[in-house]
Amino acid sequence: MGSSAGSQVAPTFGHVAASKAWKRQLVWIYFAWFVCAPGASRAGEGIDLALTVTRGETLIGTLQRAGVARGDAGDALAALQGLFDPRDLRVGDRVTLRLERSGSERVRRLRSLHLATGHRQDLTLVAVGDGRFAATPLSVRPGASVSLRNVSGQVDGDFRASLAAAGLPRPVVGEVIASFAHDPDLGPEPARGSRFSVDYEAIEGSGVARELASLRSASLRVGAREHRIYRYGLRSGEVAFVDASGRGVSPLNLSRPIANAAITSAWGWRIHPVLGVPKFHRGVDFGAPTGTPVRAAANGTVEVLGWEGNYGRYVRLRHSDRVETAYAHLSRFAQRLRSGSRVRQGDVLGYVGASGLATGPHLYFEVWLDRSRVDPESDRLALPIRISGRDLSRFLSYLAHVSTTESG
Fold it and tell me: The whole model's pTM is what?
């Protein structure tokens, strides 16, 4: 389709850290043994309570106000260790409980707990039996449940193909690839015969897609050495895949700006269609008719909106102080979009065109990591990260909890 100005020098990026909007956090705690364990009480009727956190009240205080059994309340708080600090609870946050009467009218068994706050990312804690829990970032709708699964196998050539052949869902395969891609002690591909083991959570229920799954942890044994990574939610709201020392990556969850559009010019060297000389294409071109909506690849703030030379009508979004995306050759911008506007993933930014240096209608799309352009179509898009400070302390507490869960 059209050519792109992507081989030109990109516009200068102002390195102004954008304020990060806290994501709405949903914390669900499912106590599966009340439903599944032999001898679990089924006689008591379920009780649904919706409580609002009052001034000076703690989470344990809220649970006690609802009459939750002391042991259940303690198990709930222990499961949150390293994942959510109950001290982050604010006045006005809502706590929804599913309870069951026990032998005493005043004491109730906790079956599920749902926190709705204005902080952090979605998080789920799933019972794995005997009062212990596994963490998952998946949100669970009524009527569905989350199960913890393990898949093991051997690398028989291509790592991605081996993971898929073992039966892992596509999103989990991508997370495993991204997690190990930045391990400095691993090569581009694990050696044939290397063994892998992957723990992941999947939502189950009527009408639930198989793709609703998320990595929890993974290990890869190459020769006599084992490489292991864990999924961990940072206080900033980002997700990291790190080793036991807190070193790893934070994957980018970018969506395509035009769904199902064909790539007409990929990242890499090419003969520029307009200039007729070899140029390195530092983005990708999506072919689409004039007027096709162009959508934000992730939540962010509009940093640049206007005409940018060969790029034509151009939008640049800042998603964090390390990640930006750019959209060029637009025919027009979305109404009411301005520099400084906050957008959400999927919001319309503008419409496909051929403005600037282009031979036909298409979208030129760039991704910037740490002020350097990277291949938007790479399955290894992730930011190197090293957990430190309070995040590291919480992560080490989380690891201790996970180790206790797995050994028990």
Answer: 0.56
